[in-house]
Design a protein that fits this description.
Blueprint (H helix, E strand, L loop, with lengths): L13 E6 L6 H10 L3 E5 L5 H18 L4 E5 L14 E4 L4 E5 L9 E3 L3 H6 L5 E4 L4 E8 L3 E8 L1 E4 L4 E2 L12 H10 L6 E4 L5 H11 L4 E6 L2 H5 L1 H7 L2 E5 H7 L5 H15 L3 E4 L14 H13 L3 E4 L1 H4 L4 H16 L2 H9 L8 H16 L4 E4 L4 H8 L6 E5 L2 H6 L6 E5 L6 H14 L8 E7 L8 E8 L2
Parallel strand pairs: 1-2, 1-16, 2-3, 3-12, 5-6, 12-13, 13-14, 14-15, 15-16, 17-18, 17-20, 18-19
Antiparallel strand pairs: 4-10, 5-9, 7-8, 7-11, 8-9, 20-21
Helix pairs in contact: 1-12, 5-7, 7-9, 10-12, 14-15
Length: about 475
C-alpha cells in the first residue's frame, strides 16, 4: 500500500456505507471514506457483475491512494419469494374475502394469483400467516391442498405484480443460497472481498454451506432477518464469522415491538463470542430525501452504539439517496458524540462479557486491564488472521486497538471490528523487534508520542494463528 496519511477515526464504532447509483464514482467513494465509511457494501440484489467489478476496482484505487485498509461486503440476494403477475397489473384485496395462491402461471385477478414456490405450499398449515408486500397485507391459510393454498384476507390493500411474500410462522425447506447467489460468489470471491452477507439464514446448515463455498477467502456475515434464525441463534453464531441485525425483513416477520429486544439479544450474543456485529436498515432512512435525519433516527444510531455494536450501516441513504455524503458525515458525528459521553463508557464497561477460559482470552483481558491501569495510549496487537485483535476488541478497552498484521486480507477484515485501527506491517523476527515495530507504528499513526506507554500483545511463535500468549508494556522512544 501507499505511504500512509494521518487519518484516524475519532470513534470506535465503525460505519458501513452501501454503494449504488448515488455513490458509484471513485470521487464519491473517496469522499465517503474520508467522511467516515470504513467498509463499503455491494448489494447483489441490484446491478450486474460488471457494475460490481468496477466498484471493487474503484474502492481498491481509493484504498491505495489513502493508504488505509478498506473492507468490502458482498451482500448476496438470497431466496426472494414473490407472487406472480396480475392480468391488470394490480388488484385490491378486501379484508374477510378469500384469496387463492396456486401454482398456475396464468395472470391473477382479485380471487387468485400464482405463488411460484411449491415449498411454501408444502410447508404451510391451517392458520399459517403469509405477509405480502413487506407486511402491508396479511393472509391466513384456511385450507391446504397439494397445488394451492386457500387463504382469508386479514389485512387488505392493493397488491401488484411480483410483490414479496414472507412466511414468519414456518421454517421453509429453501436453502439460503440460490443458484444466482452461487454464481455471484463464484464471480466476486476471486476479486478479493472481505465479507459475504448471507441473506435469509434459517439454520446453522445454511452457514456451513456458505463457509464451504467461501473456503476462507472471506468472512461469512450472517444476516438475522427471520424468526427461525433467531430461534437458532447460538448454533448460527457458532459457525458465522460476524453477524448483521437486518431489521428490514426482521421487522416484517416479527411483531414490531419484538425487534428492539431481538436486536439487543443478538448484539449481546455476538459480543460474548467476540464476533463483529452490525446493526443495519433504516438507520437514517429520512436522509434518502432530506439533508438531515429525524431526532428518532439519531437516537436509533445512538442506541446501537450504546448496545455495543461493532458497526452501523447505511443502505439506501448512500446507495440511492440525494445526500449520501451528508448521511455518512452525520452518522460519523452521532457515533463520535455518543462515545464522548461518560455514560457510554460506563455502560460499555458494565456490559463487558467475562473472559473465556483460555490463555488467549486471559491475555486479552489482562491487556485491557494493564492498559487501563497505566493509562496506555494504545494496545498494539500482532495477528496473522485477526484472532488476536478480535479478542482484544471483545474487551472493549479504554484506548484504541492498533491491529498490526502482515496479511492484507486480515487488515481489511479488521475494518469492521470495534475500536481497531488496522495496519499492515512485516512479520517481526523476534519479540524485541515486535515491540520496536509496535512503538514505531503507534507513533507513526499518531496514537502515542515519545515517552508514552503502550501495551503490546501477540502470539509467539509468530505466524501461528490463535496462539495469543504474550503481553508487553513498552515506552515509545
Amino acid at each position: 500500500m501507499a505511504a500512509r496519511i494521518p487519518l484516524r477515526r475519532r470513534r470506535r464504532t465503525k460505519i458501513i456505507a452501501t454503494l449504488g447509483p448515488s455513490s458509484s464514482t471513485e470521487e464519491m467513494i473517496e469522499k465517503l471514506f474520508r467522511a467516515g465509511a470504513d467498509v463499503f457494501r455491494l448489494n447483489f440484489s441490484h446491478g450486474s457483475h460488471e457494475d460490481h467489478a468496477a466498484r471493487i476496482a474503484m474502492i481498491r484505487a481509493v484504498e491505495k491512494r489513502v493508504g488505509r485498509p478498506i473492507g468490502i461486503l458482498a451482500d448476496v440476494q438470497g431466496p426472494k419469494l414473490r407472487v406472480g403477475k396480475f392480468a391488470a397489473g394490480r388488484v385490491q384485496l378486501t379484508a374477510g374475502h378469500r384469496f387463492r395462491l396456486d401454482l398456475n402461471p396464468t395472470p391473477g385477478d382479485v380471487k387468485r394469483v400464482q405463488l411460484p414456490h411449491p415449498e411454501i405450499i408444502q410447508a404451510a398449515r391451517i392458520g399459517t400467516n403469509l405477509l405480502l408486500d413487506d407486511g402491508k397485507l396479511r393472509l391466513r391459510v384456511v385450507h391446504c391442498r397439494d397445488d394451492h393454498l386457500e387463504t382469508e384476507v386479514v389485512t387488505g390493500g392493493p397488491l401488484s405484480d411480483r410483490k414479496g411474500v414472507n412466511v414468519p410462522d414456518v421454517a421453509l425447506p429453501i436453502p439460503a443460497l440460490t443458484e444466482k447467489d452461487r454464481a455471484d460468489l463464484d464471480f466476486v470471491l476471486p476479486l478479493g472481498i472481505e465479507y459475504v452477507g448471507l441473506s435469509f439464514v434459517q439454520r446453522p446448515e445454511d452457514v456451513a454451506e456458505a463457509q464451504a463455498i467461501a473456503g476462507g477467502r472471506a468472512w461469512i456475515m450472517v444476516k438475522m432477518e427471520k424468526p427461525q434464525a433467531v430461534e437458532n441463534l447460538d448454533g448460527i453464531l457458532e459457525l458465522a464469522d460476524c453477524v448483521m441485525v437486518a431489521r428490514g425483513d426482521l421487522g416484517v416477520e416479527l411483531p414490531t415491538e419484538e425487534v428492539p429486544l431481538v436486536q439487543k439479544r443478538i448484539v449481546r450474543a455476538a459480543r460474548a463470542l467476540g464476533k463483529p456485529v452490525v446493526v443495519a436498515t433504516q438507520m437514517l432512512e429520512s436522509m434518502i430525501s432530506a439533508p438531515a435525519p429525524t431526532r428518532a433516527e439519531a437516537s436509533d444510531v445512538a442506541t446501537a452504539v450504546f448496545d455495543g455494536a461493532d458497526a452501523v450501516m447505511l443502505s439506501a441513504e448512500t446507495a440511492a439517496g440525494q445526500y449520501p455524503l451528508e448521511a455518512a458525515s452525520i452518522m460519523d458525528r452521532i457515533v463520535a458524540r455518543v462515545e464522548e459521553d461518560a455514560g457510554w463508557r460506563a455502560i460499555t464497561n458494565a456490559a463487558r462479557p467475562e473472559p473465556r477460559e483460555t490463555s488467549a482470552d486471559a491475555i486479552a483481558a489482562a491487556a485491557r486491564q494493564v492498559a487501563h491501569t497505566i493509562h496506555a495510549k494504545v494496545i498494539a496487537t500482532f495477528t496473522m488472521t485477526g484472532s488476536t485483535t478480535l479478542r482484544v476488541a471483545r474487551e472493549r478497552p479504554d484506548c484504541p486497538v492498533l491491529g498490526l498484521t502482515p496479511n492484507t486480507a486480515a487488515a481489511r477484515r479488521m475494518a469492521v471490528v470495534w475500536g481497531v485501527h488496522p495496519m499492515e506491517v512485516q512479520t517481526p523476527p523476534s519479540m524485541s523487534d515486535m515491540v520496536t515495530r509496535a512503538s514505531r507504528a503507534a507513533a507513526q499513526e499518531g496514537f502515542a508520542a515519545g515517552g508514552e506507554e503502550i501495551v503490546v500483545t501477540a502470539g509467539v511463535p509468530f505466524g501461528t494463528p490463535g496462539s495469543t500468549n504474550a503481553l508487553r508494556v513498552a515506552t515509545v522512544r
